[in-house]
Amino acid sequence: MPILSKVPTVILLHAPREDDPYEAAFREAGYAPESVPVLRFERVGQAALREALARPGAYDGLFVTSPRAAEVLREALEQQTESGAAWTDELAFAVGPRTAEMLREVGFAPEGEESGGAEQLAERIARKSFGKPLLFLCGNRRRDALPDRLAEQNISLDERCVYETHLRNDLRLPDDARWLVFFSPSGVEAVRRASVDLGEVRCAALGPTTAGALREAGWPVAAVASEPTPEALVAAVRQAAPLGEQ
After folding, report:
1. Domains of the chain, each with CATH number or no CATH
2. What is residue 16's predicted lDDT score, i.e. its pLDDT?
3. Angle at 24 between CA 26 and CA 138, to 5 degrees
4. Is a pLDDT exceeding 60 seen at residue 229?
5. Label partner for 38 (CA 20 to 30 A): which of 94, 181, 187, 191?
6. Phi, psi of 103 (to 5 degrees)
């Protein structure tokens, strides 16, 4: 059984980064956050990506659904200065504020960052009309919901896998962990593969897709963020269990 702590420990299942807004939001709210990576990434398909980015006129825009894909895109455009400027004038879509912010840093004006997941982004994209394909940059573990929904609307995609996701199998939780925050279905799978005993640790999800993956795994979901932001995530956790009751 986890050891109770005056300051509840919240394990954020994502890679730690400098000035992490999720860590900051939980710390300000009176928790002790700790970021623990559950995945490792490997870039793939870089030649195919460069070929696609060299032809901005062949597309009506692009979309990415993860910060990792946005990072790969940013680095590729920085290396292709001639076509990079043309791309930032194109329509762009992104899921979540972090992914959208990374696109803005390159010069895009992305839409859809308030979308809670790929399915919601698909609905937003489907409301528009396109005469050319959209460039879809994704990982090898992407789900089918978004491309399937767009296919139903006869929206053509040029899908390029730009990174592969590999799960860690050496995950361990601190004894005093009170909350485990999942940011993606891949995180759920990583915890399952590592055979982590959750005990009385509560599970929180950043969005409905991840919450669904938790339920499919047979784990109760105590909190789901209403939108993919640090503030919404903290609010969901506090509503599920007030700080004094943890």
Report:
1. 9-38+171-245 (3.40.50.10090), 42-165 (3.40.50.10090)
2. 86
3. 95
4. yes
5. 94
6. -70, -40
pTM summary value: 0.65
Worst-scoring range by mean pLDDT, 77-86, 97-106, 175-184? 77-86
Residue in the structure block whose two tokens are 């903290």? 234
Q: Single out the residue of 32, 33, 37 nearest to residue 14, CA to CA.
A: 37
> Which residue, among 67, 61, 36, has the nearest Cα to 196 in the 3D structure?
36
Whole-number Å distance between alpha carbons of 162 and 69: 7
Q: What does the pLDDT look like over 119-135, one tens digit per residue?
A: 888 888 988 989 999 99
* Close Cβ partners of 144 (under 8 Å, ≥ 6 residues apart): none
Q: What does residue 72 show for φ and ψ, rounded to 5 degrees? A: -65, -40
Return the amino acid letter for 25: A
Helices and strands of the chain, counted as H and E runs = 10, 10
Amino acid symbol at 202 = R
Structure tokens at 204: 């929180």
